[in-house]
# Entry
Amino acid sequence: MRAPDTNEILLQVEGVALAFGGVRALRDVSFNVRKGEIRAIIGPNGAGKTSMLNVINGFYHPDRGAITFKGRTRARMQPFEAARGGIARTFQNVALFKGMSALDNIMAGRTLRVRRGLLWQMLRYGPALAEEVEHRHRVEEIIDFLEIESIRKVPVGRLPYGLQKRVELGRALAMEPDLLLLDEPMAGMNLEEKEDMSRFIIDVNSHYGTTIVLIEHDMAVVMDLSDRVAVLDHGVKIADGTPDEMRENQAVIDAYLGVAH
Amino acid sequence: MIALGQFLEVLIGGLMSGVLYSLVALGFVLIFKASGVFNFAQGAMVLLAGLALVRSLDLLVANGFPLWVAIVLGIGFAAVIMATTAWLIERFVIGPLINQDALTLFMSTIGVTFVLEGAAEMIFGSDVYPLRLFPTDAWFVFEGLFPGGILINKLDVWGALIAGILVAGLAIFFQRTKTGRALRAVADDHLAAHSVGIPISWIWFVVWLVAGLVALVAATVWGTKLGVQFSITFLALKALPVLIIGGLTSIPGAIAGGLIVGAGEKLAEVYLGPSIGGGIEYWFGYVLALTVLLVRPQGLFGERIIERI
# Structure
């Protein structure tokens, strides 16, 4: 098991509560993410895992509580501001630009890094051309890394599910994020695809040093990949610690197996 | 020779007037490409832009401004009106409907249509206002070749020229700039666009602004041709077959569709009209569109949609 590079806290979630009408999706949840670690959030269906990710990346605004990212606390933040701050994510049910090619999808991840003005881009001249070439270069690196060279020109709507998930990861990587949120990256995959995806996640973490927060149902995957695990149940954090500790934690076992009342 | 001369005259006239349809169709394509919304209000936007332009022009000229100053100021004023409209639509109609079904958004644009039509006529008046921005006389070319020559309307030439520049600019904008890429991204998936850092509300404002400016350009040409009046909103109906033939998502398709509809309806009127009673140019475009629908439902240039089952 790799130890996190430092003990520096990248993301601090403090007392977050979120309700939809009468449904309390999150109740007073606190945890932190250290720089460079792979942090898993697990829990039964409806435990509030995806809600937690949506709060971190600004899709939802918590009713109470604070989120501190890179030392800055913020209350209401729009998703595009989160992206600007260095948070990238993937979605449970793949959210890609279906009409665009794999290459264009990943290029879209570079949107925030384009610096030259509109007119220069239209003329594709001088510095703007150099910049475009540089972005293409970075994107090609990601395509090589994810082993999707052969499908770069294919509209992603036509790709099988496993490859779509890979393209989506590629788009998130193209943003060169400090924090990468993965919402069930292995959902609906066969064993081989899961192994590939696990390898990519570990490589992203070790190769680019990206901090990763991941939600996953497959316990074997979680135990293999993550440095620390937070367990949610009915919107409450019931346990937090290393995978080995979680395996023996009675509350976690009860939540997953059910308790006789 | 007379037959050939007449054929060429009809064909050229048809192609040119077809480009004018394309000008209106372009506005539809832009918004559809960038937000997946079929904007029913495009015709109303042409009316609004035209009224804002012609009324401010009249006022400025009446107050003794030289014509060219009045034209520059008038176009500027109309552009500001379209920008304000774009902002209001984003802020109060489309923005709150983020992540809703395409049909919901479409219905909301029907509402926008009536508000725009009402507001435009309330503020700027509801008469027919003549606009004289482009020459409306005609050239006669090839007089040596054909008796009487071939008649070409100067206005149509201007329209074609403007449409050409507009299309080239828009195509480059969509293909090469990050904003263009962001527009296509937003059309595909709101959530995903958000997550890669695209500010959707800004993008939607840009889209409606560009569509508003295209409407303004269409209004200058059509206003000169017909006068600025309420019936200009029915141009939206003329643009429908153009869209179906060209494909809703293709800018070059809007031009090609316009050319096909324009040439088709004029040729049909002249050559088929007499044998089936005439007046067919008003519906011939729709026949062409239906034919295309049967063969290629996505239009000649549209993106092929493949559903995985």
